[in-house]
Design brief:
265 residues, alpha/beta, Rossmann fold, seven-stranded parallel beta sheet, 7 strands, 45% helix
Length: 265
């Protein structure tokens, strides 16, 4: 199937590892010119090399998505090399686990908002003008199920309180920019087989074999599929949302979680 995005410039924040890297590699396979943006130069270089080995075109840019100056510089560098980003994939990472009474630093809530929501503000301000001039754009945020259904196993009170602001921001902008051919959506992964998740299951839950994990995923985590999702299963959804075929799909929060989210809507 031709997604109609060959030659498009794709900026992938967090594209050096996990779900972001899987998305970067799939976009490159579709013929996009990919800019991998992350903090660690070593991880960036490995991701760019992997794309090149498969015949794709990619560059790497080191930047902190929570810094407006870094994002402005990154977008300027990408524009100089490839042209203005037309496809933008974003994500953010901030972990303060615990129930409310366990969190003794109220600044954690402020920092969480900066990380999850203000990072999107910085990126959107940097890329939307170019998309608007082109009359076409795709913006996909890799969010979290906690934005819609608060998570308490393990407890994520800080994220539960701040993640929804990002979804509200992106829905507002999706409505505002749809008339310019720009779609803005959120993909919400469930339990995905990343290094962080694997570490948590082994060291916090003591789960070392597949049968233990399957039982725990169904009985404790509440995932009907009984398994972790793969980064590729998230990336394939993202790539579809970036396609021409998905041009009428905007402003949505799409859970890819093995049935973990319990609401019918």
């Amino acid at each position: 199937m031709d997604y109609g995005i060959a030659g498009k410039v794709a900026l992938v924040v967090g594209g050096s590892k996990g779900m972001g890297r899987a998305a970067a590699e799939m976009l490159a396979a579709e013929g996009c010119r990919v800019a991998v943006v992350a903090r660690s130069r070593n991880h960036i270089d490995r991701a760019v090399a992997a794309i090149a080995e498969r015949g794709g075109e990619a560059i790497g840019v080191s930047a902190d998505a929570t810094s407006k100056d870094d994002i402005d510089r990154a977008v300027a560098d990408i524009t100089e090399t490839f042209g203005p980003p037309e496809i933008v994939i974003t994500q953010a990472d901030f972990h303060v686990r615990g129930f409310f009474e366990e969190i003794d630093d109220d600044e954690a809530f402020v920092e969480s908002f900066r990380t999850y929501t203000m990072s999107q503000v910085h990126i959107l301000r940097a890329v939307l003008p170019g998309m608007k001039r082109a009359g076409w754009g795709r913006f996909v945020h890799i969010g979290s199920a906690t934005a819609k259904e608060p998570q308490n196993n393990p407890p994520h009170t800080v994220a539960n309180g701040t993640r929804p602001s990002t979804v509200g921001l992106l829905k507002s902008l999706a409505d505002e920019y749809a008339q310019f051919g720009i779609t803005i959506n959120t993909v919400a992964p469930g339990w995905i087989a990343t290094r962080t998740t694997e570490w948590y299951l082994e060291h916090h839950e003591g789960l070392t074999d597949s049968e233990q994990r399957r039982a725990w995923m169904i009985d404790e985590a509440g995932v009907p599929a009984g398994r972790l999702g793969s980064p590729a299963e998230i990336a394939s959804t993202i790539v579809y949302l970036c396609s021409n075929l998905a041009g009428y799909l905007t402003g949505h929060y799409i859970a890819v979680d093995g049935g973990h989210h319990r609401s019918a809507f």
